[in-house]
What we know:
By secondary structure, this protein is of the alpha/beta class. Helix content is 43%, strand content 24%. It is built from nine helices and twelve strands. The N and C termini lie far apart (89 Å).
Amino acid sequence: SVTAAAADLGYTPSSVSQQLSTLERETGVVLFEKNGRGIRATDAGLLLAEHAEHVMRAVAEAEQALDDVRQGRTGRVRIMSFTSAGDSLLPAAVASLRRTHPGLHVATTIGETDQAMKMLRDNQLDLALVLEPYAKGHAPKDDLVRVHLLDDPYRAMLPQGHVLADGAAVELTDLAQEDWVAAMGGNGFCRDDTIDICRRAGFSPRFVAHAVEFPAAQAYVATGIGVGLVPELALGTVHEGVVIRPLRRAPESRHVWVVTRRAVARTPAVIATIEALTIATREHEERSAARPHAALAARA
Length: 300
């Protein structure tokens, strides 16, 4: 009955009657008919009730799905990283997110800083893991949100058996007369960094080989044909035949930042991804501190 329905719903009987009348007017069919002192649904009313059940279930599912996105439990984060961070920090962060946010899809890709920053501003990315020219505390105030992850120091790559391989740290000028190997990277920045660092030390490196990335550069050094520079972040695995040593008067480190747009900076998915990258960075630094060359650096 209308009275029983009103009591169950917490409405007045007249309010329920008005809703039923409105529903019949909007559908253009008779949905209810008298049945003794109460009413009963017509075939059209039963059909509408069946469909309404599906509609209400879909609405509830949509509300739950939106809440999952709102809370960061599901969704998608698009992130581009430069190569060495993409080989070290990013896999650990994605693995962590799969455990803590299994419904969150992290779409990763590799690219250099200029490309990543352009795609970020064009709304093709949500996060960019990049190398910036400024250290922590000196980021520009612009339309982007930046989180400093770490300063990535350079190390010397020496062939095993090199005269300087047994030392605690290497003076860069002691390598001035050596042949050099350089990693090119996606845009030559790695080679350019080597040239810039050596010139600041007072000499120009004489290159005898160029590799696409740092692991390949290690392979050249392992043959004994030359020496090179490698950032700590690219030392996930040290090639057999290569000795890694810190630099006594270390050049400026690479500055690693994760960058996002202000429009998405406070979304749960982006916050969770930055948190995972921060944890992965801390774990990387702990591993680096435990490496033999890091202990040598402390003594030097």
